[in-house]
């Protein structure tokens, strides 16, 4: 299957790692933005070699359908966001909001962030998974604080404290999992190696696993942004640079949820534990409803879409909590559609806030008149994220609602309510943002909207027609997830 | 296992827990930092003892790191920052000493009630060590909650970490402990020393997080 002499995972991980080191010393910002995009592009190329077949599982790295899919998604969104980031950074340098030393740091951290996320996805060892998620926290905290404004520092501090405690609890959960597995598997690294544990989970003490899963869910759930652990998320999205908001929403939340799901698979393999589903359903519904209602009160455009991310992570967590082939399929589809749409929206939002010079919703009006490309891009993006047909998110939400109705109609009611309430809020805000008399600057923007257009085309096509191999791929992951 | 092994491990674990209680009621920053340094030293001793009884040399590395980083380097650096930036030496606490202590005792009870029933098939040493460690984690959280000061919260966070390391060293053959300790240390070092103190200080003239609350971004 594999024709390369080396494990492709090593290449996928080495590219961002070495780029992070290299970009730390590249001074000229034009060169740095291009190198950043180039490195992300090469990572995407390396990740797409996984399509031709998976390497053997080693003690450190594991590749199966599930993480190969997420790695491709991560590398793709990472690449398109790096293209957007190039134009964004150019503008920030011109207006003097960012100074060159900070830019070196920014680009280095961007690649370090990609590295930690890909490492978390490919990690076979639960300890390495934890270290990678911790590293992702560290790099993003530093990027959120990039502007050094009081609000950015407060956001970064909140992010550090909340997610620091979150990952600390996740580590405690990981220690408990090891303690549970150790009598069966023997000590040492095997008892932390996911692929080895899966086969022998049935003999592990279920009580200890229950306790461990609660810590894991709360711990990594903080990073997913599940209510009531979500307080860091809107601040971090609103105060950091917009490309970082795009990768936070589009990628990091997925990776944190991926970590939870790996542990859920261990629970399912054991068979005698409590069902992990109801806990996830509860947190998912809570996130969906709280975020849907609070969407109405948002006055900051980046916060608006940050709350929308909480809402969608709630839907996805709910889907995986329900389980079964259809709900899992819907969850996987929703994960990718949300990543693509949300990062596209943040591209539009980033351009809009730069040209208007504000993040206040009330001060951004009539975008379709003043900047048709951004305005209509935002309209299409918001319609897609709100779940209007014919976009991909409509398809995944439809699948989820119908499968929930079939298995448990009572749970479908709050789900539908949440989706409809959020839909209303987003459309309400969209009207003033996109239509009416334009406000503020009407100067054209030079930055390309290519990533926005590309993502929206994919989301539109996915809503109308899913290719057969992709369906088969998702179905096989849905089976893995149980 | 000779009973002296068990007794000393138990003693050191309990010492770490006791120092967590001592952290709870400190009202002065220097005393808080000193207490934290002593706790880290006790943790180092606990890790070294576990290294000896489990015959696991990598735990000695953990012990040296805990001792060097958390008992010496970080406290000294924090001390310097406080002196250099002339930060107020007393801390506002959200709760009085009495209620805090009662909350702390309840948390310890909770963790014992939680851990002991589910760990019936592991050794007595491990399960009691785990109960102690979970108590230290929860008390670390409580310390963070009851402090309104950035340094107080960081010390609470690091004491929470001490609980995690205590849990990790108590479990037979746990891999990657050193890596995890380093990951935490890097995180704390980067964020605390590199970025926040200087910038928060620069912007606000205080490390009291209460003053940060107005910057919600949407208060305008």
TrEMBL record, chain A:
Transmembrane regions: 6-26, 35-54, 66-89, 101-122, 128-147, 159-181, 208-232, 244-263, 275-297, 373-395, 410-428, 449-466
Keywords on record: Cell membrane, Membrane, Oxidoreductase, Transmembrane, Transmembrane helix
NADH:quinone oxidoreductase/Mrp antiporter transmembrane domain: residues covered: 123-415
Domain of life of the native organism: Bacteria
A Pfam short name: Proton_antipo_M
Annotated GO MF terms: NADH dehydrogenase (ubiquinone) activity; oxidoreductase activity
Principal place of residence: membrane
Keyword Iron-sulfur: no
Subcellular location field: Cell membrane; Membrane
Membrane topology qualifier: Multi-pass membrane protein
Keyword Chaperone among UniProt keywords: no
Any GO CC annotation of this UniProt entry: plasma membrane
Protein name: Oxidoreductase
Species in which this protein is naturally found: Skermanella aerolata
Lineage, opening ranks: Bacteria, Pseudomonadati, Pseudomonadota, Alphaproteobacteria, Rhodospirillales
Gene name in the database record: hyfF
TrEMBL record, chain B:
Membrane topology: Multi-pass membrane protein
Regions that span the bilayer: 6-25, 32-53, 59-82, 94-118, 130-147, 154-174, 180-200
Keyword annotations of the record: Cell membrane, Membrane, Transmembrane, Transmembrane helix
Cellular localisation: Cell membrane
Source taxon at top rank: Bacteria
Coiled coil regions in record: none
Record-linked PANTHER family: HYDROGENASE-4 COMPONENT E
Protein name, entry field: Hydrogenase-4 component E
Organism of this sequence: Skermanella aerolata
């Amino acid at each position: 299957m594999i024709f390369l002499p080396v494990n492709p995972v090593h290449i996928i991980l080495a590219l961002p790692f070495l780029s992070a080191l290299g970009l730390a010393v590249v001074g000229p910002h034009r060169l740095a933005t291009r190198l950043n995009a180039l490195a992300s592009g090469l990572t995407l190329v390396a990740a797409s070699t996984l399509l031709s077949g998976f390497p053997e599982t080693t003690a450190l790295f594991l590749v199966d359908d599930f993480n190969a899919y997420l790695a491709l998604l991560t590398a793709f969104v990472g690449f398109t966001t790096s293209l957007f980031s190039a134009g964004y950074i150019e503008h920030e340098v011109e207006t003097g909001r960012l100074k060159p030393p900070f830019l070196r740091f920014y680009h280095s951290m961007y690649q370090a962030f990609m590295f930690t996320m890909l490492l978390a996805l490919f990690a076979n060892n639960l300890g390495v998974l934890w270290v990678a998620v911790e590293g992702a926290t560290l790099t993003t905290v530093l990027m959120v604080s990039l502007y050094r404004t009081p609000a950015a520092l407060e956001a970064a501090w909140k992010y550090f404290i909340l997610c620091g405690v979150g990952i600390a609890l996740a580590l405690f959960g990981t220690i408990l999992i090891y303690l549970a597995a150790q009598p069966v598997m023997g000590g040492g690294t095997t008892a932390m190696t996911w692929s080895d544990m899966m086969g022998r989970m049935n003999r592990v003490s279920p009580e200890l696993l229950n306790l461990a899963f609660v810590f894991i869910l709360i711990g990594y759930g903080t990073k997913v942004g599940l209510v009531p652990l979500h307080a860091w998320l809107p601040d971090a999205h609103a105060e950091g640079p917009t490309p970082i908001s795009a990768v936070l929403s589009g990628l990091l939340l997925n990776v944190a949820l991926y970590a939870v799901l790996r542990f859920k698979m261990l629970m399912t393999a054991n068979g005698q534990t409590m069902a992990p589903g109801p806990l996830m359903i509860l947190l998912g519904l809570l996130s969906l409803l709280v975020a849907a209602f609070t969407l109405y009160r948002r006055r900051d455009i980046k916060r608006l879409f940050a709350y929308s991310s909480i809402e969608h992570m709630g839907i996805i967590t709910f889907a995986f909590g329900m389980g079964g082939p259809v709900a899992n399929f819907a969850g996987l589809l929703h994960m990718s559609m949300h990543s693509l749409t949300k990062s596209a929206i943040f591209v539009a939002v980033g351009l809009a806030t730069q040209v208007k010079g504000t993040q206040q919703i009330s001060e951004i009006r009539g975008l379709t008149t003043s900047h048709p490309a951004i305005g209509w891009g935002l309209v299409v993006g918001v319609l897609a994220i709100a779940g209007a047909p014919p976009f991909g998110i409509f398809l995944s939400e439809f699948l989820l609602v119908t499968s929930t109705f079939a298995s448990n109609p009572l749970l479908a009611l709050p789900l539908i309510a949440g989706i409809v309430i959020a839909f209303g809020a987003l459309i309400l805000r969209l009207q003033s943002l996109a239509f009416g008399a334009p406000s503020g600057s009407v100067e054209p923007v030079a930055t390309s909207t290519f990533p926005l257009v590309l993502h929206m085309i994919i989301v539109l096509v996915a809503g109308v027609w899913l290719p057969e191999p992709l369906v088969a791929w998702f179905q096989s992951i849905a089976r893995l997830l149980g | 296992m000779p009973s002296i092994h068990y007794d000393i491990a138990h003693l050191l674990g309990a010492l770490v827990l006791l120092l967590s209680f001592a952290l709870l009621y400190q009202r002065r920053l220097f005393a808080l930092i000193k207490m934290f340094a002593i706790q880290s030293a006790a943790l180092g001793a606990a890790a070294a003892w576990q290294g000896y009884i489990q015959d696991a040399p990598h735990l000695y590395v953990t012990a040296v790191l805990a001792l060097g980083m958390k008992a010496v380097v970080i406290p000294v650096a924090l001390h310097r920052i406080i002196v250099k930036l002339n930060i107020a030496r007393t801390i506002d606490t959200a709760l009085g000493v009495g209620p805090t202590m009662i909350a702390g005792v309840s948390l310890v009870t909770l963790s014992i009630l939680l851990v002991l029933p589910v760990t019936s098939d592991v050794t007595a040493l491990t399960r009691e060590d785990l109960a102690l460690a979970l108590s230290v984690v929860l008390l670390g959280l409580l310390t963070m909650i009851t402090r309104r000061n950035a340094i107080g919260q960081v010390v609470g966070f690091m004491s929470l970490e001490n609980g995690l390391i205590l849990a990790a060293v108590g479990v037979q053959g746990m891999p990657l402990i050193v890596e995890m300790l380093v990951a935490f240390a890097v995180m704390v070092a980067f964020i605390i020393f590199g970025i926040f103190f200087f910038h928060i200080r620069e912007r606000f003239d205080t490390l009291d997080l209460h003053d940060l609350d107005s910057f919600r971004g949407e208060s305008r």
